[in-house]
Amino acid sequence: MGILIDSSVLIHFERTGTDVSTYVEGQEEEDAFLSVVSASELLHGVHRATSAKRRAKRLAFVEGVLASIPVLEIDLATARSHAQLWADLARRGNMIGVHDSWLAATCLAHGFRLATSNIREFKQVPGLDVEEWT
To answer: Comparing C-alpha atoms, which of 123, 127, 88, 107 is closest to residue 35?
Structure first.
């Protein structure tokens, strides 16, 4: 089993100066991954920085994360899972954010747990194993 790390956790780590590698220590039996969606969210934060100094600091953090945690692309199994999840949530009138639905679908398709600080949103997804990491 693996664990997918949500960008909300990494943003919290960056803001507080927490070292990602020390947080995942003790969980070596599980592979940790980052979704390409979360990679985009983190890079978006770099581009939105309001000063060159802040941008450089964010970029260094994001590049460190991208170098140390494997990034998963969206594959056909995830697309199928996402389509089903999207339809189910829409039918129930209980939609979650678009990016969050891709993360949830990735976890469901690959049997991963999700590490997030956004428990409220992800708890709406039936069958999703969610763990709070902040």
So the answer is: 107
| Model confidence pLDDT, tens digit, residues 71-98 | 999 999 999 999 999 999 999 999 999 9
Number of domains within the chain = 1
CA 8 – CA 114 distance, rounded (Å): 11
pLDDT in tens, 26-43: 666 789 999 999 999 999
DSSP lists the bridge partners of residue 35 as: 72
* Alpha-carbon radius of gyration of the chain: 15
Distance CA 134, CA 125 (A): 20
50, 21 contact by CB (below 8 A) = no
Tally Cβ neighbours within 10 Å of residue 125.
Answer: 22
Containing structural domain, residue 90: 2-132
DSSP-derived pairing of the beta strands 113-116 and 71-72 = unpaired
Question: Whole-angstrom Cα distance, residue 74 to residue 37?
Answer: 8
- Output the domain CATH number for residue 125: 3.40.50.1010
Residue 50 has pLDDT above 90, yes or no: yes
pTM of the model: 0.91
